């Protein structure tokens, strides 16, 4: 089945869904994005993702005429047209098509909005079952990581370096502290059973899954500290995990080759993953 892609109000076969060479998303990474997970044909936490999209737009003075209801309708149409059961909807908004210039174009320049679906095993993820090995890498990204832009080359380089070191993914480290994963937020459970994840700032993405998991952990009665932690603290933790829309809660079983706990997914991470799945299914749209 050929995939149907959304582009500026139209649903087209993917081969016909093309963007201009002069699009600022292509030339300058002047673009933001969101990824919503899909389970059983329904969207997970999509209102949170739309709210963060609006925040990224405001930080970058970007415009979009579509309301959240229209975005939801578009996501649902894509899911239906592509018969997507499990996977994700990717949305990207760029500042539009205009002659190349560092200055932003006039505010009435029409933006480019594209979206597409992708199949992905989320519930029965092999990585979540086995647990992820992470390798630390220096965090060399820009300093507005709270804005979800498509400047993803460095996270991609860091992931490749982690893979070359025998790991599955990178945890990024700045001034001695873990900021987040290449495409996820990072958590540890200390030997004293305190759940630790970095406080929100411009240093990291404000993960939608991170927020949901913190709230579920609070409901569980877990002690939570919002603070930065070092790679050494992670290596001596009882458990560690990462969160993102499509990895949900995925255990981290080693950091730079040091096994965490027994080197298998831990019970607290497993429980939070199960609760997040349950919560997702109950609130899917
Ligand atoms: N941090 C980074 C750098 C990311 O790219 C992502 C997701 O892509 C996340 C965290 C997790 O965010 P969310 O839970 O909203 O998917």
From TrEMBL:
<dbReference type="GO" id="GO:0047810">
    <property type="term" value="F:D-alanine-2-oxoglutarate aminotransferase activity"/>
</dbReference>
<comment type="pathway">
    <text>Amino-acid biosynthesis; L-leucine biosynthesis; L-leucine from 3-methyl-2-oxobutanoate: step 4/4.</text>
</comment>
<dbReference type="InterPro" id="IPR043131">
    <property type="entry name" value="BCAT-like_N"/>
</dbReference>
<dbReference type="GO" id="GO:0005840">
    <property type="term" value="C:ribosome"/>
</dbReference>
<keyword id="KW-0687">Ribonucleoprotein</keyword>
<dbReference type="InterPro" id="IPR036038">
    <property type="entry name" value="Aminotransferase-like"/>
</dbReference>
<dbReference type="Pfam" id="PF01063">
    <property type="entry name" value="Aminotran_4"/>
</dbReference>
<comment type="function">
    <text>Acts on leucine, isoleucine and valine.</text>
</comment>
<keyword id="KW-0032">Aminotransferase</keyword>
<comment type="similarity">
    <text>Belongs to the class-IV pyridoxal-phosphate-dependent aminotransferase family.</text>
</comment>
<protein>
    <recommendedName>
        <fullName>branched-chain-amino-acid transaminase</fullName>
        <ecNumber>2.6.1.42</ecNumber>
    </recommendedName>
</protein>
<dbReference type="InterPro" id="IPR018300">
    <property type="entry name" value="Aminotrans_IV_CS"/>
</dbReference>
<dbReference type="InterPro" id="IPR001544">
    <property type="entry name" value="Aminotrans_IV"/>
</dbReference>
<comment type="pathway">
    <text>Amino-acid biosynthesis; L-isoleucine biosynthesis; L-isoleucine from 2-oxobutanoate: step 4/4.</text>
</comment>
<dbReference type="InterPro" id="IPR043132">
    <property type="entry name" value="BCAT-like_C"/>
</dbReference>
<keyword id="KW-0663">Pyridoxal phosphate</keyword>
<keyword id="KW-0689">Ribosomal protein</keyword>
<dbReference type="InterPro" id="IPR050571">
    <property type="entry name" value="Class-IV_PLP-Dep_Aminotrnsfr"/>
</dbReference>
<keyword id="KW-0808">Transferase</keyword>
